[in-house]
Structures are given as structure tokens and as C-alpha cells.
């Protein structure tokens, strides 16, 4: 499981706001961290992806969540937001969450 801090670091790395092995600037980390809870709530409310605890993010979801967070804060870091990238990341998160949902089948007894 990954944490919110891991998601912040991965997002900043994607934005090229920090070098490999370097700590992110506190103001950059704050900028990203400030939107994570709201974005996760938005994804959950729209049925795209649910994380009950931002400090227990499934490892396989980190890439798509960091791409989504990257696009969410892109303007603050001098980049452009891409609606296509956002839609694709959301679709991938939705596909992952649907694979992890337990299913129940009706059993017939003879």
C-alpha cells in the first residue's frame, strides 16, 4: 500500500518538480497534497474509484492516480491540463476498481 505522501512524491516527479532522490519543495508538496482528498472524494462520488484511507492507496493504482493528480495541479506548475489524459486515467482507475469488486453469483441447489 502507498501513502498520501507517496502520491504527492510521484505526482511531483511526474511534473518534474523534483529530481530523483531529492525531497520536494514544501510549497510544491503542499499544493499537491491540498487537492488529493477532494479529488479522491470526487472520484468516489462519481463511482470511478474509491480509496477509504488516503494513506492506504493500492500500489497498482498509484500510476493512474499520480497521472490524474498531475493533470489536476498542472496549471499551478506551468503545465497544461489534458482532458484526454484525465478521462483515460479515470477509465483505468474505474477498470481497476471493477476488477477488485467482489461479485456474488446466485447458486441453484438441486
What does this protein look like?
- With 110 residues, the chain is mainly α.
- Helices cover 55% and strands 0% of the residues.
- It contains 4 helices and no strands.
- The protein has helices at residues 4-14, 26-45, 62-73, 83-99.
- α1 (4-14) crosses α2 (26-45).
- The protein is globular and about 65 Å long.
- The N and C termini lie far apart (43 Å).
- The relative contact order is 0.17.
Please state the overall shape, judged from the principal axes of the Cα atoms: globular
Overall residue-averaged pLDDT value: 86
Percent strand equals: under 5%
- Order of helical and strand elements: HHHH
Q: Tell me the distance between the termini.
A: 43 Å
Structural class: mainly alpha
Number of helices: 4
- Largest sheet: number of strands, sense, barrel closure: none
Low-confidence stretches: none
Overall strand count? 0
Helix content: 40-55%
Amino acid at each position: 500500500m502507498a501513502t498520501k505522501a507517496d502520491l504527492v512524491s510521484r505526482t511531483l516527479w511526474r511534473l518534474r518538480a523534483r529530481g530523483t532522490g531529492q525531497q520536494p519543495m514544501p510549497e510544491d508538496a503542499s499544493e499537491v497534497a491540498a487537492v488529493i482528498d477532494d479529488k479522491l472524494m470526487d472520484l468516489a462520488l462519481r463511482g470511478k474509484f474509491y480509496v477509504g484511507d488516503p494513506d492506504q492507496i493500492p500500489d497498482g493504482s498509484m500510476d493512474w492516480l499520480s497521472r490524474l493528480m498531475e493533470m489536476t495541479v498542472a496549471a499551478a506548475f506551468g503545465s497544461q491540463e489534458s482532458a484526454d489524459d484525465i478521462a483515460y486515467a479515470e477509465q483505468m482507475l474505474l477498470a481497476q476498481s471493477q476488477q477488485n469488486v467482489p461479485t456474488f453469483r446466485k447458486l441453484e441447489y438441486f
